[in-house]
From TrEMBL:
This is Protein p34. It comes from Sagittula salina. It is a multi-pass membrane protein. The chain crosses the membrane at residues 12-33, 53-71, 83-101, 121-140, 161-182. It is found in: Cell membrane. GO terms for biological process: intracellular zinc ion homeostasis. PANTHER family: MITOCHONDRIAL METAL TRANSPORTER 1-RELATED (PTHR43840). Belongs to the cation diffusion facilitator (CDF) transporter (TC 2.A.4) family. Residues 215-292 form the Cation efflux protein cytoplasmic domain.
Length: 304
């Protein structure tokens, strides 16, 4: 028997819309900072914000799709749509990094002094503070809501915060020393850091697309729930788990005494499912009931 739990995704959608609005504000601020200074390092920071805006929109679309209930064409739901958003974000990060490297190379060939650097740095600094605060919110709430798209968006924003700080340091050093090639060098470092971030975002999302099992700590908790709540059964074996967006799929075989009625076996399954939903929010549990002669004498021993 199988169970489902389709809770409304309002919290995810609000966060995704918030990312889109903040992305527009930060992009405008960083573009203004670059236009005031002509700094290629600040240009690289602004370019990364265009990626933030595009991926915020992709996350909004993905979360909306993932929230749709299962249908005839998608009987297991649309949960994996969020992983595609995270993969797209990784691809866009890499494209932006390559463009920044191209601009940095051109600036290194012909270094030039910046205009109004202090005003530009102040505006860029304010945008960085906004990004940092929102990145913290996205990562914390994204993990709580089990949303790969929101977590990936938060991690990317935090990378943007780190690189913005590095940009400020590089531009400051260029001002103090008069060595304007530092501006291009910092832009190149930003690009390398962005590439590293893009790789991590993509690799984490690909593991979800490949139906990777839940972490060992979660797996231990799932085993405990089965052992403590399947009272009356003999054992549970062939446990399989996987993540798909915010959903956690749990499947296993439950061995019951041969003389047990269907009603009693069903009661055990209901008890296990309810306990699993409490321990693992948004879990989808599938239990295959077997008679005692199917016992493998391995797997999960049910507590007396």
């Amino acid at each position: 028997m199988a169970s489902t739990d389709n809770s409304p995704p309002n919290g995810k959608l609000r966060l995704a819309v918030g990312s889109l609005v903040l992305g527009c504000i930060v992009l405008a601020l960083k573009t203004l900072a670059w236009s005031l200074t002509g700094s290629v390092a600040l240009l690289s920071d602004a370019l990364e914000s265009t990626v933030n805006l595009a991926t915020a929109f992709a996350a909004l679309v993905a979360i909306n799709v993932a929230s749709r209930p299962a249908d005839q064409q998608h009987p297991f739901g649309h949960h994996k749509a969020e992983y595609f958003s995270a993969v797209l974000e990784g691809v866009m990060i890499i494209v932006a990094a390559l463009f920044i490297l191209h601009e940095a190379w051109g600036a290194a060939q012909a270094p030039r002094a910046m205009q109004a650097p202090f005003s530009g740095l102040a505006i860029n600094g304010f945008a960085t503070v906004l990004n940092g605060a929102w990145a913290f919110v996205l990562m914390r709430r994204g993990r709580a809501l089990k949303s790969p798209a929101l977590v990936a968006d938060g991690k990317h924003l935090w990378t943007d915060v780190v690189t913005s700080f590095g940009v400020a340091v590089g531009v400051g050093l260029a001002l103090v020393t008069g060595w304007w090639a530092l501006d291009a060098a910092m832009a190149a470092l930003v690009a390398v850091n962005i590439l590293w971030s893009g790789w991590h975002v993509m690799s984490a999302s690909l593991s979800g697309l490949l139906d990777e099992a839940v972490p060992e700590a979660d797996l231990s908790r799932i085993r405990e729930v089965i052992a403590e709540n399947a009272i009356g059964a003999v054992e549970a074996h062939d446990l399989r788990t996987r993540h798909a967006g915010s959903a956690t799929f749990v499947e296993f075989h439950l061995v019951v005494p041969g003389e047990m009625t269907v009603f009693d076996a069903h009661e055990i399954c209901d008890r296990v499912e309810h306990a699993m939903h409490d321990a693992v929010p948004e879990s989808r549990v599938t239990i295959h009931v077997e008679p005692e002669h199917k016992s493998k004498h391995s797997g999960i021993v049910v507590l007396d």
